[in-house]
Write a structure and sequence with these properties.
Rossmann fold, 52% helix, four-stranded parallel β-sheet, alpha/beta, 230 residues, globular
Length: 230
């Protein structure tokens, strides 16, 4: 079993989901007392969020690169960055380490392809929904990406930062997200990517008839497959 290096803390609320996901997936695959071999480097999200807000992606890349190097030195065989937004600086982190990093959008594209999805809705932070670094990975695979309108993008972004990253789960916000998901489906989405690792704390497949793709779960489970050589 390869050792998974996890860069977490963005926010720590979803890092909990990752830790549970990788261990449950190993137990499901291998049975018995098996659990994931993993290292977790949890950053201070206050620093990362401040970099995002002022557009200082170079500094955030430096912080996460140091985390990646620490994981490599600690014995990780590969790395997962436990957040969607910070894949904006994926290439800068990858070039600093000699071990592979599994890109969250690429493994999500694999999942979409396996489910026959060629048109998908995308929810996430404003950076993920509006910039190209994430969507282009899906488009390269022939997948059309639909995002909500400007007002709904703002609502989604505010809910992520002002509620979910702080551990606040609101019924009113759940209703709003389900409304937005329904709108994406009406616009032609065959499924919807929960493209922020906190969104799964608010909505899940039991809440809607729309097919949801929770990136935290997908990323964690794909990391386990890589770890055990499946």
């Amino acid at each position: 079993m390869k050792t998974i290096g996890m860069i977490g803390g963005m926010s720590w609320e979803s890092s909990v989901t990752y830790y549970q996901t990788v261990n449950r997936a190993v137990k499901e695959r291998l049975g018995g007392f098996h659990s994931a071999k993993c290292l977790l480097y949890s950053v201070d999200f206050h620093e990362i969020e401040a970099c995002q807000a002022r557009g200082d992606w170079e500094r955030s890349a430096d912080i996460l690169s140091e985390a990646a190097l620490s994981l490599e030195r600690g014995g990780a065989d590969f790395i997962i960055i436990c957040t969607n937004t910070m894949h904006k600086v994926f290439d800068r982190i990858q070039e600093r380490v000699s071990i592979p990093i599994l890109h969250i959008a690429e493994v999500t594209a694999d999942e979409l392809a396996e489910n026959g999805i060629d048109t998908v809705g995308l929810l996430g932070t404003k950076y993920t929904m509006e910039q190209d670094f994430y969507k282009e990975k899906l488009i390269e695979r022939g997948i059309k990406v639909i995002v909500p309108g400007e007002a709904d993008r703002e609502r989604v972004n505010e809910t992520i930062y002002r509620e979910l990253c702080l551990g606040i789960v609101s019924d009113d916000s759940r209703k709003e997200f389900l409304r937005i998901i329904d709108g994406l489906t009406e616009d032609g989405a065959q499924g919807v990517i929960l493209g922020c690792t906190e969104i799964g704390l608010l909505v899940n497949q039991r809440d809607t008839g729309a097919k949801l793709f929770d990136t935290a779960e997908i990323h964690g489970k794909r990391a386990v497959l890589y770890s055990i050589g499946k």
